[in-house]
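Appendix B, record 7
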Amino acid sequence: MTERSDVTVVIPTHRRNDFLPEAIASVLAQELAPAALVVSDDVGDPATREIVQDWAGRASFPVRYLDSSGPGAGTAGASRNAGAALATTSLLAFLDDDDVWHPTFLARLVAALHDDAGFAVAWGAADVPGYQFPRARAGLTARDAVGRNPGFGGCNVVVRTGLFRSLGGFDPQLTVSNDKDLYVRALAIGERYALVPEVLVTYRMHGSGQLTDKTPQRAEGIRRYMTKHEALLSARDRRYLRAQLASVLRVTARGPVRRWWHTGELAALRLVLAVRGPR
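Structure tokens (predicted):
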């Protein structure tokens, strides 16, 4: 019989019914089962509800469908928060609807979460060659993490529910980087984390709409993030985030002149970042 943990898993979903079953299946396949799974659907799709109800019949623990559509919906942070609000467990874990956990994910992170750690983090890898995801290292500070994401994602962390709620959860106004933002805020108040240096998450790369897509919403999210963390950002961090913004605006800006200008801006920022090397 599979041992059960004191973890509530939340899967935020947004019209990804082709991917969602595999994400749910990876939760059901955990060697250390969660206490509960909540699938938070920010569009209230009847087909998504059916998928969740079908998988609920196969689980040894409660699996709940949550219609989190309505006012305030529309970001991954808002959807995650809605699911987390239902948790009665001491720990929370989040899995995106297009990614999958390895069977030992919960067992390894829960075991690593020592008394003075507010969260535990593992590594992840893409399901296709050519994509490199950052791998967190031990002892990072808020200033280390605020610019280029060192490996704090929405799928590779188990966090204490009390800490999550004391931070106000994910920022629902951030369309991007709301996962990194949460853990930067945790580090900024002195929270520590446990590191599990193993690849325990598979990130699936696809063309069905991802937060890395170059859209006006992504550009606005980068601007919001930079404004929010202005006091923590180093000069290099600002250049890095401005380069991210320029890479979006060179595609989404109105008119060819603006797009060309942002293309040149991106080239200049990348050159400066390359010449000056790592922080």
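Remarks on this record: Strands lie at 3-4, 7-13, 32-33, 36-41, 63-67, 91-94, 99-101, 119-126, 157-160, 193-203. The longest helix spans residues 256-276.
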